[in-house]
Amino acid sequence: MSSYHPRFVSRITRNTLALILAGGRGSRLMHLTNWRSKPAVPFGGKFRIVDFPLSNCINSGIRRIAVLTQYKAHSLILHIQKGWGFLRGEFGEFVELWPAQQRIIESAWYSGTADAVFQNLDIIRNHNPEYILILAGDHIYKMDYGTMVARHVETGADMTVGCIEVELKRAREFGIMSVDAEGRVRHFEEKPQNPTPIPGREGLALASMGIYVFNRDFLLEQVIKDADTRTSSHDFGKDIIPSIIDKYRVLAYPFRDVRSGAQAYWRDVGTVDAFWEANLELIGVTPPLDLYDKTWPMWTYQEQLPPAKFVFDDEDRRGMAVDSMVSGGCIISGAVVRHSLLFSNVRVNSYAKVQDSVILPDVEIGRRCHIHKAVIDRHCHIAEGTSIGIDPEVDRARGFHITAGGVTLVTPEMLGQGVNTVR
User: Fold this and answer.
1) Which of 33, 198, 277, 408 could cross-link with 374 by S-S, CB 3.0 to 4.6 Å?
2) Which of 46-55, 195-204, 266-275 has the lowest average pLDDT?
3) Is the dihedral of CA 289, 293, 298, 301 positive or negative?
């Protein structure tokens, strides 16, 4: 922020419309997204993934926001309606929900990220922004978008792409770019089989974060052109960016910590292993993502719940949690919780042990259960004496999902409970 005058940044953020693309399923999260979209997946004890780009917008001074939904969006829509209705429309502030509603082609849903924008051209024109910020709704990070939009304006770019450095072995999961000395994107390929490394840094590649800034008229021109291209998959990474980098100014914006200059925290919690790891990172002494940062608060909808409670203090029946995060409404009743993250309204009953696990909201763990290295989905009721994460073969036989990293995922359906419940 120091290189930009605050008045300059505030002017352009007021004239920016943020579009959060939140329609994806996130199939690599397996059963966690059977009945909710990836942006609606709970994260961090009390949040949902979509709260991170939404909070970034609010903290960046961008208060005209649209959330584009599609896949199994009911829980996402409820969450946003309950928790994000505090902006004042009379001041030009809003969080709007734009479901796939066949506005342009009556027989088609959103067929790609660019098509999602194209199908809402009339609404975008009605809001009449100068700049459009396009965000993925399924990543965990804290970022000041105002600085990125200011850089876009100062450099005279037609499009600016947020980017991070990733290990070459993971680069196949991302859109990978090559840039010149000015930072102009000269080559871009979506999820390449043989990613191009950063020159002089052979173990790293420069990856797109799925964050883009456009001048409004340029964006509208490009998505209309793309919609008329029959061979296009109508995706920003696969189609739009490769088609414009030779003729227009497409600049990369490195995402770095403003104080240290180092790579900033960013996580794509796209697999169950990544989801489990990113949640448990939060309980560390100095976590890479600081949820206690008062200068950059994370906003969400949360029920009005009593504080967490720990009951019984007998030698063999002591309610306690060590090296853990425990959310409101939880009761640890004569049980032991170690190195775990408990979301709200979790009850762990006497003599149970929970270790290295992520327990989503409204879960009840019965007496004498032993839960180890697991993710337990919302509304699960674990029967008394059940062991999970102890013997993989037993867990597989029960129909639980075991990840490549050895994490056991349990959902209500696997337990014969709560089919099709709102998550």
Assistant:
1) 408
2) 195-204
3) positive
